[in-house]
Here is the input.
Amino acid sequence: MKRMRWKLGVLAVGSALLAGCAKKGPPATQPAAQPQVVTSRLELEQKIQQLHQQAAAFADTADQLAGRSDQGHQMLVEQSLTELTQLLPLLAGPGMDGGLNQHIQVIESSRNKLRNADEEQAAGPTINTALRSASGSLERIMADGFADQPQLAEVLNQLKGKIGELDTTRGAIHQLVVAQCMELMSQAVSGMSQATIERWQNQMRLAQPAGDSAGE
Here is the structure.
């Protein structure tokens, strides 16, 4: 009986020692906690600057589309599509799904066709395809991340109506409708960019160490 009690006592002590050793191990997140906050803040600052600049560049290009020659119009459409392919992933964020990625690929493909097209080739159908995919991309992004922004839904509703006019117009009227589509896309991008930047700024404030915020 005494021997049995001794064995049980040894086992109990051994278990306590093992538990104590496990508790004394260094926490996995301890060394990298503070540097990680700084890196995240720097990344957010860079993203804010990048998104602000690209949204402004897209708005500027969209403003120039109306009243251009055929060649000037096509060049500005190409530039707008390039800017859109850079903006859309930023607005979608890390959760960008396969459907959105497919839309962006269609926009890039259409842009490349415009860039390499002969003068005799009609650019209208290619531009129409790109704008439909761009509109679909913005609708997808709004549904996933901006459903609480009713003004964006109204802009995209207007855009959907304009997209429907692309196939029924030609020449100067078609160019006008394209310019109107780009202007509405610019409004949507501007609203999404502003909301996204505000979210990132809030993340920066939350990630800021308490001592820094107290000193401000």
In short: Residues 40-208 form one domain. The first helix runs from residue 2 to 24. Confidence is low (pLDDT under 50) at residues 1-39.
